[in-house]
């Protein structure tokens, strides 16, 4: 794989982390857990897979938690989160819905189907599971 192709795979992996976290408990859970310590990388990953709306939602959610953006330090971020109003938490829930579909990742994989076919072929040749 080229460096650019590796970057695409990393971006997809990073975005899967966000989708999993938000799918499990919404953006509230994402920001409560240590996963949000890597928010800048996650925003970049969402943009890299073409999910600009998700990147914008993650940035908006961070600004809802703190006007300068939710802290990248979990303890500080939890304190910021504790001060949220019910109205703000409702907005986080609204933004969370953007992540409750596999469509952005599937569109990315379809756009790069040749890359994934090459990876599958290489894994099979190496006697590794194709998944």
Tell me what the structure shows.
- The protein has 131 residues and is mainly alpha-helical.
- The chain is 73% helix and 0% strand.
- The chain has seven helices and no strands.
- It has helices spanning 3-32, 39-48, 52-65, 74-82, 86-96, 103-111, 113-125.
- The radius of gyration is 17 Å and the shape is elongated.
- 26% of the residues are buried.
What is the H/E order? HHHHHHH
SS summary, helix count: 7
Task: Compute the CA-based radius of gyration.
Answer: 17 Å
Distance between the termini: 17 Å
Helix fraction? over 70%
SS strand fraction: under 5%
Q: What is the residue-averaged pLDDT?
A: 94
| Global morphology | elongated
Main sheet record: none
Question: Could you list the spans in which at least 5 consecutive residues all have pLDDT below 50?
Answer: none
Quantity of strands, as a count: 0
What is the structural class? Answer: mainly alpha
């Amino acid at each position: 794989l080229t460096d650019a192709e590796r970057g695409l795979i990393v971006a997809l992996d990073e975005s899967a982390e966000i989708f999993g976290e938000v799918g499990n408990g919404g953006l509230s859970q994402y920001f409560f857990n240590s996963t949000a310590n890597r928010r800048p990388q996650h925003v970049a990953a969402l943009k890299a897979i073409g999910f600009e709306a998700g990147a914008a939602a993650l940035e908006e959610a961070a600004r809802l938690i703190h006007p300068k953006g939710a802290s990248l330090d979990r303890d500080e971020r939890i304190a910021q989160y504790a001060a949220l109003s019910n109205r703000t938490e409702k907005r986080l829930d609204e933004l969370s819905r953007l992540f409750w579909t596999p469509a952005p990742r599937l569109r990315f994989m379809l756009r790069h189907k040749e890359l994934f076919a090459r990876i599958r072929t290489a894994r099979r040749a190496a006697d590794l599971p194709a998944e």
